[in-house]
Structure formats: structure tokens, C-alpha cells
Amino acid sequence: MKKKGGIDLTLDNEKRLIKLAKEGNEDAFIDLFQLHYSFLYKYLLKLTLNEEISSDLTQDTMLKCYENLNSFKGDSKFSTWMISIASRLYIDQLRKKKREVNWINQTKIALSRQLTWKANSKGIEWSDTFTDFNNLEAEFRIPILLHHYYGYTYEEIGELLQIKTGTVKSRVHNGIKRLRKEWAAYDERS
Amino acid sequence: MTKDHNQTDKLIEDLQKDWNHLENLPFSKEPSSFFIKEQLQNSQLKKKKAFYKELKLFMVTAVLLLSFLSMIAFLDFQTIVIMEVISIIVAPLIYFILIHKQEGKIFDDRN
């Protein structure tokens, strides 16, 4: 399991950069963003499975963070705050594109080609569960990823996504249940 | 029950492996400071432009509405009263409908 926050940036250093950025120091914000870039980008990649979309969303997240920097109180890690904004931007993007079925289908095809090519060159094979997981709705995927990979608690995810803890629990539980059902279906077929 | 647990553990394990694969795939490096600076400045410029555009639109609408209302007030005071009463009833209704529409929209998406 990956440790939440993901990067080796001392808290003091992070606080110093945030303080400078809040005072209007653009370079401090750029440093802060560059330090978190990889973590944020890879989080989004696990959700979108598309390099281009992840890169665009990472940039959108950066701009949103820059605009709302003064609302960051420092109760959580900066990376957690970024993940929170990125998740909501991703959800917004899905909502906007909801009716454009063709767009989504095209993206899915492009994504599997890109990833397959990269994975093949590294000799990686994705599990069947991974394919099923990526077919789940975002409402299930996000909390499952945050809980089972990044190690966030249900309470933290609730705060991050601005939903109730109970809702997070049930989404993680139901998402896993649906994956198990798919597994059972594979077993029956084979 | 134990079988379910084992299955879940295996599922999570598989997923974690796949996420780790993704994590370790080579991807392009973070954008340069120059590029980020440019992006920040562009976004600020866009925001400024959007603000002035909205301000202009607001001013024009306000002037138009005010002149229209004052014209009616001079000509027919009764119409003004009727319009006020209607807006007092309709405005909260529209607000309530919009709020209601917004709720439950989060996570309403299917990918």
C-alpha cells in the first residue's frame, strides 16, 4: 500500500513554501506544484487510465489550487488537498462528458492501446480484476483507490470528497462486492 | 464468509499490483517552471477578461432594467406592484428548484 501524501517533503519545508505562495510568491507555488506533480499525475492516471487526460487534469488542478490557495488551512497535507480538488475536477469532467458517449468510447480505446503498448514493452500484464475495476463507476473507483492503495481512512475520504463516512464505506463495500460478482461469473464460465 | 474474505483479499492484492505497475511505468517529467508560470499568467489574464466581460454585461443589464422599471413606474404604478409580487413568489421557487437539482448530482456519473 502506498503511503498517503506520497512524497518526501518535510512538513516544515512544505509549510514554508505554502506560506510564501500565499504571500504571492509565484516561484514558491511552482516549486510546491513541481514537488507534488508526479504524485498527483499518477493518482489521476489510475482513475483515467489516459496520459493526456491525466496531464490536463493535473494542470487544471494546479490552476484551481493556485486560485484557492488562501482557503487551504493546513489541517491536512497539501497533497491530500490537491487530491481532493483533483477528484472533484475529475467528477465534474465526467459529468460534462456524460452525454457524449462517443467521446468516452474513443477515449477508452485510445487508453487501452497506449497502456497496453507501454505495459507490453515492460512485460506487464493487467489482471482481469483491473479491467473490471476500471469498468466501475467513478463513485466506486475513487474511494476504493484512496482506501486500498493510498491508505486513507473512510473518514478522511469522506472529508476529501465531501460525502458522509457511511456513504464512503458502503461505496467501497459495494464496489468490491461487484468485483467479486464478476469473479464468480468468470469462475462459472471457466 | 472466509471464502468471501479470501476472495476480497486476493482482489485487493491484484489491484494493488496493477496500481503499482502503473505507478512504476515511465511517464513524462513534470512541466518546466517556465511553462507553469506561463499557465498561471494565462489563467489570471483569462480570469481578468472574464471578470470585465461579466461586469460590462451586469452594468448594461442593470441600466436597461432600471430605465425600463422607472419608465413603467411613471406610466403605470400598478404594473410595478404586480411585477414585485410575482418576483417575490417566483424567485424563491426558482432558487429552490435549482438547489434541488444540484443535490445528488455528485457521483451521478457513469464512466
Automatic annotation (TrEMBL), chain B:
InterPro entries cross-referenced by the UniProt entry: DUF5345
Membrane spanning stretches: 55-74, 80-98
Keywords noted in UniProt: Membrane, Transmembrane, Transmembrane helix
Taxonomic superkingdom: Bacteria
Name of protein: YxlC family protein
Organismal lineage: Bacteria, Bacillati, Bacillota, Bacilli, Bacillales
